[in-house]
Amino acid sequence: MGLAVKPIALEEFDIVISRASINKPTVREFMRRISKVGPRPGYIMLRNTGEFYSR
Description:
Strand content: under 5%
Number of strands: 0
Order of helices and strands: H
């Protein structure tokens, strides 16, 4: 639509996945893809993008 985007701040966010879903093929594929994608315009990929944390 030709709308301009003016960044005003950096944001960091996490994706939360239940333990019951972590080994589902679609979730594993999503995690594989997110860890290999390059930064998009206006985004910064952190060093730990794609890492798994568990509690």
